[in-house]
Amino acid sequence: MKRAACVLVAALFGLTACSSDNTNTITVSAAASLTDSFTALGAAFEQDNSGIVVRFNFAGSSTLAEQLAAGAPVDVFAAASSEAMDRAVQAGTVEQPELFATNTLAIAVPPNNPAQISRLDDLAHPDITIVVCDVPVPCGAATQRLFDANALSVAPASLERDVRAVLTKVIQDEADAGIVYRTDITAAGNGVHGIDISSESNVINSYPIAVTATAGDSSRDLATEFVDFVLSDDGQSILRSWGFGTP
After folding, report:
1. Residue ranges in the chain whose pLDDT is less than 50
2. Eight-state DSSP code of residue 111
3. Alpha carbon distance 192, 208 (integer Å)
4. How far is CA 213 from CA 22, 172, 179, 190, in A?
5. C-alpha triplet 86, 72, 80: angle, nearest 5°
6. 91 neighbors 69 (Cβ within 8 angstroms)
């Protein structure tokens, strides 16, 4: 019965297996903004631990927290905000979160910058088509704090499910601008042009990570080792190479 329920939840959320089924595999649910850096972290961890496989589930932090609460078979949860992790703590689905990185916002525009955006205030112009994350996800909440702190009245053309959806619309030239994390500008390479937001105007998101309360006995030690690796000097070096700040 337990196995059948686990398989049902795994199928529902697109996860391949229950964490306790394979002692050499762990499943990590991580915020969409961690896609590139955590893929690199996973590869480094596998290289250091022969025979170990790290599987990732990337999505908006609020979605991942909901999946955990519904019983998704996950061993590690890494969120893009303390608020998302707090919800998981309150639901009893994670154990002892620790901060591992910080991130700030930036403006992404197409490489040719057709709207000639040069600063944050430009986003309030009514002719600018801008896309942002929906407020329930960390990048959306941070964007709203950014606008409020700078007294900007901005009318987004769409509210996206996560920061990578915002980035994709800018890359595909479906928007004049998008608010993303600084690290997404790094990840996009030549796909977008990044416009910095001054530190005086910007907001900071802190990223927590935790082993889940539902991690199987056979995978808990491995999940703990992965979290320790993320917090280690080597792990932090990889995160810095993708533009993340220290916790």
Report:
1. 1-12, 16-21
2. T
3. 28
4. 17, 40, 33, 40
5. 35
6. yes
